[in-house]
């Protein structure tokens, strides 16, 4: 876990070393094109994936930038959050996210969880503590616990792990556009630049799909 956090820290430090404009984005420099495309969850739409961890300070800092962008995405773009699960607290918090997502209440408590862990990194380490916390946010405690320990969530955990491996990520936050292009905030040049790069790759995928028709 230390190596992953160090990777994320190096990437964030790159914000001050890279100053890319949309016209300057280059494959191999600002983003990586995966050797094998990963299937998207909604065929026919351009998918943007954010891989994150609730305990990551850079993911927390990215929230005010990415959330307004997500809200304005056009209808042909599908945004997905996937928890990075590399063991320990990564897995515990990833299971928390997948449980809330399965219950349809993730958007209701997502920010509160980030706030809680930003102020107390040692919080939310057991299902019972999580259940008590989300209950304070209006989520049914018993339903949370039964969902958290369900077979369906175990399947979602394995799916998330396999996707992270397929995307070949080494830190968070990482963005993947349409299962083909992977980049992070550091390689893009900053939080705003990362979303400009995402917009550029979305436009590329849209144009390529139109040309193929």
Description:
Helix content is 55%, strand content 11%. It is α+β, with helices and mostly antiparallel strands and 213 residues long. The protein has a five-stranded mixed beta sheet with strand order 1-5-4-2-3, sandwiched between helices. Strand 2, helix 2 (57-71) and strand 3 (77-83) form a beta-alpha-beta unit. Helix 3 (89-103) packs across helix 6, helix 3 (89-103) crosses helix 7 and helix 5 packs antiparallel against helix 6 (141-148). The N and C termini lie far apart (45 Å). It is found in: Periplasm. GO terms for molecular function: disulfide oxidoreductase activity.
The H/E string reads HEEHEHHHHHEEHH
Number of strands: 5
Fraction in helix: 40-55%
Radius of gyration: 17 Å
What amount of the residues lies in strands?
5-15%
Low-confidence stretches: 5-20
CA-CA gap between termini? 45 Å
Summarize the biggest pleated sheet: 5 strands, mixed
Strand order of the largest sheet: 1-5-4-2-3
Structural category: alpha+beta
Per DSSP, the total helix count is: 9
Average pLDDT, rounded to a whole number, is 92
Principal-axis shape: globular
Task: Give a short overview.
By secondary structure, the chain is α+β, with helices and mostly antiparallel strands. It contains nine helices and five strands. α3 packs across α6, α3 crosses α7 (151-167) and α5 packs antiparallel against α6 (141-148).
């Amino acid at each position: 876990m230390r190596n992953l956090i160090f990777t994320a820290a190096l990437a964030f430090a790159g914000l001050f070393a890279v100053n890319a404009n949309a016209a300057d984005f280059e494959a191999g420099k600002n983003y990586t094109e995966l050797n094998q495309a990963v299937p998207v969850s909604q065929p026919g739409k351009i998918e943007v994936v954010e891989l994150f961890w609730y305990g990551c300070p850079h993911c927390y800092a990215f929230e005010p930038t990415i959330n307004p962008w997500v809200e304005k995405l056009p209808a042909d773009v599908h945004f997905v959050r996937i928890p990075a699960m590399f063991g320990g607290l990564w897995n515990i918090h990833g299971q928390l996210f997948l449980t809330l997502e399965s219950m349809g209440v993730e958007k209701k408590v997502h920010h509160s969880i980030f706030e809680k862990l930003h102020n107390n990194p040692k919080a939310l380490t057991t299902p019972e503590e999580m259940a008590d916390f989300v209950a304070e946010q209006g989520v049914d405690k018993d339903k949370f616990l039964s969902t958290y320990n369900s077979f369906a969530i175990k399947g979602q955990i394995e799916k998330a792990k396999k996707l992270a491996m397929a995307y070949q990520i080494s830190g968070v936050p990482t963005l993947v556009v349409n299962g083909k292009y992977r980049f992070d905030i550091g390689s893009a040049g900053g939080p705003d630049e990362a979303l400009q790069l995402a917009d550029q790759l979305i436009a590329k995928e849209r144009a390529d799909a139109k040309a193929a028709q």
